[in-house]
Q: What sequence folds into this?
């Protein structure tokens, strides 16, 4: 990230409404929202403007309870959460006021206290006055973050009060006018699931910006990062993998695919990533046709070449194959 805005991390367990609140605060539907636990996986950044002050918000995956926290993917999700808390100036610790405090909330409270970051306890889903009154319950005070603020991300209730408190906690003074950094080139990374799109993004940025996992469709929504390359601001967007339409059954995947198509429309350059160990598929050709349809510049990225024995001696063979297999 190359802006100097103060950063606010949205932390909490699964399905407390972090992404809904994130979208409400940035005033657009950037984060994918679903009732399916664990929809959000990577850090998702968005900008909020309140009373003339710009704030960068970080939407995060929720922490699961018990055995669901185990496994490689769960470990990487925790790393994303810890990284966001580390870089944040303020943490919004989000709970579901309707379900109260559970064991996962208590575990998260320990992580936040250990970070020693300024924190606001946010009680989401306070959709009416009866629920708002629950904010003074003893169980919320016992978490040790002071007076909680009830909000409803779904209907916008008390969102202004929350933002006032955020500005107060960050002690934001009138910001000096800075020239807004606008990316000159927007680059979208697209391809089928598991061809290495997220690995490519992380390699370009030199950091673990997004989660890399052998589990298909780990990336569920576009992840954009603004960065400088030779003093030129670029926007690099990792996208969800696209597979054959007949194989897409879950609504969450359909939304991810739609967002990928929208990203292609808005990009200047498309990096289409292939796995060198797999033959060019109908889906690969469809992605190229889509990029051509919207008159986008194309760069073909043949990934995983390190897995081919004596690849240096076989380069011409592979170049010939892709030139003849692709509709270009």
A:
């Amino acid at each position: 990230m190359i802006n100097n805005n103060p950063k606010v991390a949205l932390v909490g367990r699964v399905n407390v409404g972090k992404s809904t609140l994130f979208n409400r605060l940035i005033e657009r539907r950037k984060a994918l929202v679903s009732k399916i636990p664990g929809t959000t996986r990577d850090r998702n950044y968005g900008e909020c403007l309140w009373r003339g002050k710009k704030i960068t918000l970080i939407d995060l995956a929720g922490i699961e309870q018990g055995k669901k926290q185990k496994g490689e993917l769960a470990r990487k999700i925790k790393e994303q959460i810890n990284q966001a808390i580390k870089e944040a100036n303020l943490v919004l610790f989000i709970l579901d006021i309707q379900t109260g405090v559970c064991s996962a909330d208590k575990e998260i409270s320990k992580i936040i206290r250990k970070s020693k970051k300024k924190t606001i306890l946010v009680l989401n889903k306070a959709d009416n006055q009866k629920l708002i009154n629950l904010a003074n319950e003893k169980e919320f005070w016992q978490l040790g973050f002071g007076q909680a603020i009830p909000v409803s991300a779904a209907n916008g209730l008390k969102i202004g009060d929350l933002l006032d408190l955020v500005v107060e906690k960050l002690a934001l003074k009138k910001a000096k006018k800075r020239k807004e950094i606008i990316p000159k080139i927007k680059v979208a990374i697209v391809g089928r699931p598991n061809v290495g799109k997220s690995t490519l993004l992380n390699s370009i940025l030199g950091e673990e910006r997004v989660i890399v996992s052998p589990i298909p469709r780990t990336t569920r929504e576009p992840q954009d990062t603004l960065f400088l390359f030779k003093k030129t601001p670029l926007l690099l967007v990792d996208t969800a993998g696209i597979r054959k339409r007949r194989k897409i059954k879950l609504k969450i995947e359909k939304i991810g695919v739609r967002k990928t198509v929208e990203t292609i429309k808005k990009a200047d350059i498309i990096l289409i990533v292939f796995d060198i160990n797999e033959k060019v598929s109908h889906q690969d050709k469809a992605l190229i046709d889509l990029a051509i349809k919207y008159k986008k510049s194309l760069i073909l990225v043949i990934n995983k070449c390190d897995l081919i024995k004596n690849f240096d001696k076989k380069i011409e063979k592979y170049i010939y194959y892709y030139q003849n297999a692709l509709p270009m």
The chain has ten helices and eleven strands. The mean pLDDT is 83. Residues 244 and 283 are 6 Å apart (CA to CA). The first helix runs from residue 18 to 26.
